[in-house]
Amino acid sequence: MAFICDGNYVIPTAVAITSLICNKNLDTHYDIYIITSGLSELETEKFYQFKASKIDIHIIRTSVEKYEGLQNHPHITTATYLKFELPEFIPNEEKVLYLDSDIIIQKDLTNLFEINIEDYYAAAVKDLPLIDNPLNIKNYFNSGVMLLNLKLMRENNISSELLHIAKSSAYRLTYQDQDCLNIYFDKKVKLLSVIYNYFYSFFLQQRGKYTIESINKYFGTNYSSYDDIKKDSYIIHMVGYDKPWIYSYSLLVSEWDEYFKKSPFKFYKLKRQSIKIKGYILSVASYIFYKYWYNNNFKLSMQKLRKSLSHYTIGK
Questions:
Q1: What pairing do the DSSP bridges indicate for beta strands 95-99 and 141-149?
Q2: Which of 32, 126, 128, 258 makes the best surface tag, with the fewest CB within 10 Å?
Q3: Greatest pairwise CA separation for the chain in angstroms
Q4: Helix-strand-coil percent breakdown of the chain, rounded to 5?
Q5: Gap between the Cα atoms of 35 and 242, Å rounded
């Protein structure tokens, strides 16, 4: 397993790892690689507390300096680009299961890890909210859960290729590393069931748009409710802004708290925000505007704004 963690995601990463360990089979051995940037010595030591029988912790310190200045999504940090270097960070493994930190793992992941991806760069779950993506990729996948073929990636120098795409002006990237991975891995990805990367709270909050019927049609499943999928799911992914360590009204806050209280960071005080309708509406509106601005190539510069306003005089 591999996680990427900078100073902004220490506690969520620890909670994700806690859920991973709590729900594994007794005889399952996990090698957990934590790629870190900007962590303190104390935070690093706490991650080592996960080490136990059948749990090995490998912490790899690195820097995000080479990725500074690349395109960024509003709520995703630059550290996300470190995914590109996983083949080099973990040189002795032929494949790795990469996991984002905003997840809850509900079951043992051995079956997922053992999926054959010999002829693929990765195995991942399609991203339903991005079915109509600006890149026009048919089977656009979510990069929050990926079984990666490190051997094949090393053979084809993928790390350099992905960085080249990220720096290229030929692409209009909306979702940073995820777009880059989709561009390069296109048609070389084994598609997985929704139960390996389920957007439970996101789908439930937008159930008017993502009905259970539309989810079943998209993923070829036959579930009767959102909770039925959740019950079967190996990994629940808390995509979007509704993070349980930030907002007290998150749909998964009670479940997330169960693992937080078992983690090495359980004595840390969370500074959660309570629900504020005005703030929430502004947040959603800002996100919608950002997507419109980006997808329609709408460029509004201060120079043009000043030029427009110059036609008007206060008091007239």
A1: antiparallel
A2: 258
A3: 79
A4: 40, 15, 45
A5: 24
Backbone angles phi, psi at 254, to 5 degrees: -70, -40
pLDDT, greater one: 28 or 288: 28
* DSSP assignment string, 162-203: HHHHHH-TTS--SSHHHHHHHHHHTT-EEE--GGGSB-HHHH
CA distance 189 to 256: 30
Please tell me the predicted confidence (pLDDT) of residue 126.
98
pTM listed for this prediction: 0.85
pLDDT value, residue 69: 74
Tell me, which fold does domain 2-274 have in CATH?
Answer: Spore Coat Polysaccharide Biosynthesis Protein SpsA; Chain A (3.90.550)
Q: Are 19 and 106 in contact (CB under 8 A)?
A: yes
What residue ranges do the domains of the chain occupy? 2-274
Spatial strand order in the sheet of 30-37: 55-61, 30-37, 2-6, 95-99, 141-149, 122-126, 189-191
Please check whether residue 33 is in contact with residue 96, taking contact to mean a CB–CB distance below 8 angstroms.
yes
Tell me the C-alpha distance between 313 and 236, whole Å. Answer: 55
Taking the C-alpha atoms of residue 252 and residue 236, their distance in angstroms, rounded to an integer, is 10
